[in-house]
């Protein structure tokens, strides 16, 4: 089991979700976050408003997947998020020791689905 964490541009969220759904990856958590990478907070336009300062709006996706879904999850995020410009984001993959479905008490791969 793996935990995939992706940091993407806010305007790419719908495209990433559409790509994930095509790959039958339906379980995800989405958070709005602030941060910057190599662009160091250089101004960018978000929904027609120019954002300045050193922290930019980003979207953080957290997706727990079984090992058999890892590559297709990464490929889907990459397809949906890539613009080819600085600031497209990052994908982090972490080992996931356990997952527990609260409703049923299932552990591991069964709890992820």
Question: What is this structure, in a nutshell?
Answer:
This protein is an alpha+beta fold. The protein is built from three helices and six strands; from the N terminus they run E-H-E-E-E-E-H-E-H. The chain has helices spanning 13-22, 70-81, 109-112, and strands at 2-8, 29-35, 44-46, 49-51, 56-65, 89-95.
Order of helices and strands: EHEEEEHEH
Beta-strand segment tally: 6
CATH architecture: 2-Layer Sandwich
> What strand order characterises the main sheet?
2-5-1-6
Question: Care to describe what's here?
Answer:
23% of the residues lie in helices and 33% in strands. By secondary structure, it is of the alpha+beta class. It has a single domain (2-112), classed as Alpha-Beta Plaits (2-Layer Sandwich). A hairpin with a 2-residue loop joins strand 3 (44-46) and strand 4. The protein is elongated. The mean pLDDT is 90.
Keywords:
two-stranded antiparallel ribbon; 113 residues; 3 helices; single chain; elongated; four-stranded antiparallel beta sheet; Alpha-Beta Plaits; 23% helix; alpha+beta
